[in-house]
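Morning run. Coffee first, then this:
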Amino acid sequence: MVLIAFLIFSVCFVGTVVAINYVLNKHRSPAHVAHVNIDATVQTLLHKHQTEYDSLGIFYWINGDLKQAEEMFLKALDIDIALDRRENLADRYVNLGTLYRLRGDLAHAETMFIRSTELNKVLGRKQNLANVYAMLGNLYFERGNLQSAEEMYLSSTALHQEVENHQDLADNYMQLGILYKKRQEIRAAENMFLESLRINQVLDHQEGIADNYNHLGNLYTLSKDTLHAEEMYLKSLEINQRLNRTGEVTVVFCSLGLLYEQRGDSQSTKTMYLSSLVNNTLDCKENLANNYANVASLYTTYGNLPQAEKMYVRSLELYRDIKHPNAKQVQLILEKIKSSKGKQSQGNPKK
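And here it is:
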């Protein structure tokens, strides 16, 4: 009880200090926040309570109380403004943008992401800027504004090239491939998937190579090039089996089932569906999407974000294919992971 009373008192005190500074700065451009001189003791106190606000925001978010999560993040944002902590502000806008997207407030989410890009430009945080451009690309993609999505993905790609972030570059090419596939631009999509494959081969990123083969298989299936599609799927299957990627193996079996069904090969279709432990197209994709999301959640729990991200990407593509409402939730989780990667990159500069 004593601790609770202390926290209530402290929050009230900090709220007063923050409110004053917020009023001073609220009309300023987020990229040009004025610095306010604050006593060192007050700075320490503000920093302490910002951590508490962050923790509470995450707690409310996890428990589905987005309104309370927003209030906590906004309080933390006020402190960043008061202390002129621009890197934190840039990251805070990303968090708020992701929250607003989850709530379905795409206009407000877009505003937050754009503010983050403004600050990251001023600060020269190219890696973070590239990540936020990709998030804007995802937002526009969900809206169906493929032209704007393409522009954001290309801007993100250019920055990843500049900072030589090869893995994220490969991922961006994959996103562009998915976008071009949606626009039925088969040749452009193929070029993007092949470029992503080339980078992953140079990096000897076997998992990425397997995923690229699977994307190419999907593309060739769409263009009725079933022989080439089968070749890609079988290459993906071989790598995934060698790496013991059970979830991906199931996906490829399912994709082969869809391919053989398209060919009219009922016996092979049955064999593939039995191998993937499902027996029809819709159940196949939804089941696999759910399985990927569940595996990703486990990876997240154990702190393996790179693996979690890969699983969520596969889940998202399948949910999108069947227009499942879970696609939106998975997309937001992926953006949160991207945001975390940006912070880690800033904390570990290249030598």
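The chain is about 85% helix and 0% strand. Good start to the day.
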